[in-house]
């Protein structure tokens, strides 16, 4: 089925106020509190018939109508969302196997680079792909449907996953404008998975799916006070996701709690023949006998060896409030039984953070990866990166070309065979960076994970395809959220979940957003 035309998308955001009244009054039973609701509380309400999936979806649609004009976090609402929710309710009443737990009946927003074969568009936030038709659901979308989740719509993003313009602000999306941080509207929502982070934080959806090449889940999770898991590359399928780099791209959950993020990870992890051999190789890391939820242990910090990377990830520029927050958290980690190796040094960290090798490799990988994605679309106005650039030049008012430009797209397009030697050097250096950096320090110090207080830590994980997690850690003096970051080696998700869950349960600092100017 072709994606929804633009005029129908606009109509979706003009439901009459109060159109949900009949649905709300359909049952006399009191509803649970839906803001900040978790998957567990929602499933319990489903079980006791105090809530239906249709009512829950309608609640979020109403929230989107109320807040999205300000937050610009949702690009499209799925016109079939209520019908899908009704189907989930029927399955639950009929006691269809699997219908009483997990993600069944749970609304989820997908970042707008994740393909869905339905009435939703998949555009990476760009008008260039509006109206294009994908051949099939992305691998993660297929798994979500199999788990019974209701795809509520598409969330905004930094256009082309922040790979369009070096001057555009985080969260800028051609189709929606710039996303706003729901805690402090003038604060950076970070990117590129800004829409999923904002939406989950502002209770526009239960859970969301983002993607990360370098920092695009971890940073917006921190900035919007939500939990983000960036999985080991290949643990979740990238098939049907508009790419930057098959070597670094990863798809992961963004949720209000660690438990919710783990439930989503359990649903989307695993082999996908359309992303082979990456998912085949990573599948060996998936735990048997209970999946990832078995690692949701309140005492998960006990006896974990955590390396505190003070240089440069605990340097806060003299901000005493932020420094105090993380000082207290390090004490909490110790109190909960963790063994802190403080500090640890990543010997080549300055070179990792300052070199251009990662960007050199990404620029070279982007064009062939994107061209392959565009080539396999059923229909599209653009079939190559060159077509995208030409579209942006032809319709500058649509794409804000005059305001922000498209220098990253253009640089990638200019690369050719003569750059091969430089790319080989970049890839070799990145491999060395990981081997002599995070891998070396973790093995020498016998660490379970590294701890950081800055999202710039993401590059250490990104260049090696390693997993990471961001957990809400508090707020600065102006009310802007802070996250704490845990990262490890390939396949270390079980340890990261134990650590992240243990920290969350010991602190519980997340609070709903305040929408401050």
UniProtKB/TrEMBL annotation:
Domain Amidase, chain residue ranges per copy: 56-452
Record-linked Pfam families: Amidase (PF01425)
Entries under SUPFAM superfamilies matching the protein: Amidase signature (AS) enzymes
InterPro entries assigned: Amidase_dom, AS_sf
Keywords tagged on the record: Signal
Top-level taxon in the UniProt lineage: Eukaryota
Keyword Glycoprotein on entry: no
Keyword Phosphoprotein tagged: no
Signal peptide positions (record): 1-21
Protein's name according to its UniProt entry: Amidase domain-containing protein
Organism field: Linum trigynum
């Amino acid at each position: 089925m072709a994606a929804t035309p633009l005029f129908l998308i606009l109509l979706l955001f003009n439901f009459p106020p109060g159109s949900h009244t009949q649905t709300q009054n359909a049952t006399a039973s009191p509803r649970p509190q839906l803001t900040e609701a978790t998957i567990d509380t929602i499933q319990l309400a489903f079980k006791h018939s105090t809530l239906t999936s249709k009512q829950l979806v309608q609640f979020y649609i109403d929230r989107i109508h109320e807040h999205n004009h300000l937050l610009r976090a949702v690009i499209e609402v799925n016109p079939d969302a209520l019908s899908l929710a009704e189907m989930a309710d029927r399955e639950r009443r009929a006691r269809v196997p699997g219908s009483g737990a997990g993600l069944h009946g749970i609304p989820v927003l997908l970042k707008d680079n994740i393909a869905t074969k339905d009435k939703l568009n998949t555009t990476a936030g760009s008008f260039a792909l509006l109206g294009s038709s994908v051949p099939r659901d992305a691998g993660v979308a297929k798994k979500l449907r199999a788990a019974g989740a209701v795809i509520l719509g598409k969330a905004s993003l930094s256009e082309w996953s922040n790979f369009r313009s070096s001057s555009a602000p985080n969260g800028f999306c051609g189709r929606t404008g710039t996303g706003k941080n729901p805690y402090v509207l003038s604060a950076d929502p970070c990117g590129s998975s800004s829409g999923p982070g904002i939406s989950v934080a502002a209770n526009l959806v239960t859970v969301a799916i983002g993607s990360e090449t370098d920092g695009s889940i971890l940073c917006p999770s921190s900035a919007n006070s939500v939990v983000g898991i960036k999985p080991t590359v290949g643990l979740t399928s990238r098939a049907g996701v508009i790419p930057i780099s098959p070597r670094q791209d990863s798809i992961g959950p963004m949720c209000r709690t660690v438990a919710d993020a783990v439930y989503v990870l359990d649903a989307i992890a695993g082999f996908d023949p359309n992303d082979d051999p990456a998912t085949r190789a990573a599948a060996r890391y998936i735990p048997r006998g209970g999946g990832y939820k078995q690692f949701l242990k309140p005492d998960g910090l006990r006896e974990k060896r955590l390396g505190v990377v003070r240089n440069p990830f605990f340097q806060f520029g003299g901000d005493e409030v932020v420094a105090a927050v993380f000082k207290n958290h390090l004490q909490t980690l110790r109190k909960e039984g963790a063994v802190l190796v403080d500090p640890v040094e990543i010997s080549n960290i300055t070179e990792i953070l300052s070199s251009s090798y990662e960007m050199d490799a990404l620029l070279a990988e982007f064009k062939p990866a994107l061209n392959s994605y565009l080539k396999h679309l059923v229909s599209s106005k653009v079939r190559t990166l060159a077509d995208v650039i030409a579209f942006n030049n032809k319709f500058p008012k649509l794409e804000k070309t005059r305001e922000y430009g498209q220098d990253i797209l253009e640089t990638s397009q200019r690369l050719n065979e003569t750059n091969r030697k430089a790319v080989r050097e970049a890839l070799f250096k990145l491999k060395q960076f990981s081997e002599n950096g995070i891998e070396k320090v973790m093995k020498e110090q016998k660490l379970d994970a590294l701890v950081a207080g800055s999202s710039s830590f993401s590059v250490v994980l990104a260049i090696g395809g390693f997993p990471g997690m961001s957990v809400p850690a508090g707020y600065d003096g102006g009310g802007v959220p802070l996250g704490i970051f845990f990262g490890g080696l390939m396949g270390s998700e079980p340890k990261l979940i134990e650590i992240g869950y243990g920290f969350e349960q010991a602190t519980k600092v997340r609070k709903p957003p305040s929408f401050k100017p």
